[in-house]
Amino acid sequence: MQILPVQWVLIAISLVTGVVLAGIVRTLKTSKLGLEFPIFYRYIGFYIAILVFESVCSVTLCQNYAYFYIFWALTGVTMILEFAVMYELLVNALKPYSALIDLGKMLFRWAAVFLILAALLTAFATAESGGNRLVAAINLLQRSVRLMQCGLLLLFFGFERRLGLSWRTHSMSIALGLGVYAAVDLIFTSYLSVRIPRLIGEFGVLTNTVYLGATSFWAYSLARTEPARKNVLDSPTRLIFQRWNEALVSYGNRGELALAKGSVESFLPGVEQTVERILARKMVQ
Questions:
Q1: Please, which residues have CB within 8 angstroms of residue 90's CB and are 6 or more apart in sequence?
Q2: I need a surface site. Which of 18, 21, 140, 147 has the fewest CB within 10 A?
Q3: Considering the entire predicted model, what is its pTM?
Q4: CB-based contacts of 146: which residues, under 8 Å, 6+ apart?
């Protein structure tokens, strides 16, 4: 069994991507950005290990049952890390808003619980062998995480000015790379490869090339000095995020949502009251 030309191209792209990721690890370590993005730092290191594993298996043609289970297990761990990276980027973007950070943490926890339950239910509902159940569960997890990455990118696009961020900031650059790659991966790997299976190799080359472009963009942006962030809290214009933050702070204790008051009020009425406060402040202004 010989290695196809497409596989050689994929191996070459993986090697170049590994070198770029190694440069990112060095940048994160020397500039102490690894302390600011610890989850992203671990994600990059883990992805380098995956690239080495896949390249060795492609060259030695050791694609057996053990490779099958290891590959899908590594894919599942990668999706979990990418989900955690999104959480880290959102917290970094909402630094001036302690109350919104607490709200974001709660939403991400519920999203993680939902993804795990959906993956488990998909695995149990698949009336096939254990290997196919694993693939179905991880495929659902992967598509869900990819959609969330696209959503995070759209969120940053829509609220860039309101958050006082610039696309040259590190968190925005990382989100941009993840979002673009997620969109391409959803289109070509999850959708077109199923409908045009004869081009699955070419689609793999395209998606891997896009990921190489994303990592190169990360390396470039992380090596540059991050521009000073605008302090929107000092702005004379009351922005929507500021109103939300102030309403949540006044409703909770030090920016925490008043979920502990569940014995008196349920969560949904509490959210309604918070929204009413925000709208009332907007009407006054």
A1: 104, 108, 152
A2: 147
A3: 0.77
A4: 182, 183, 185, 186, 190
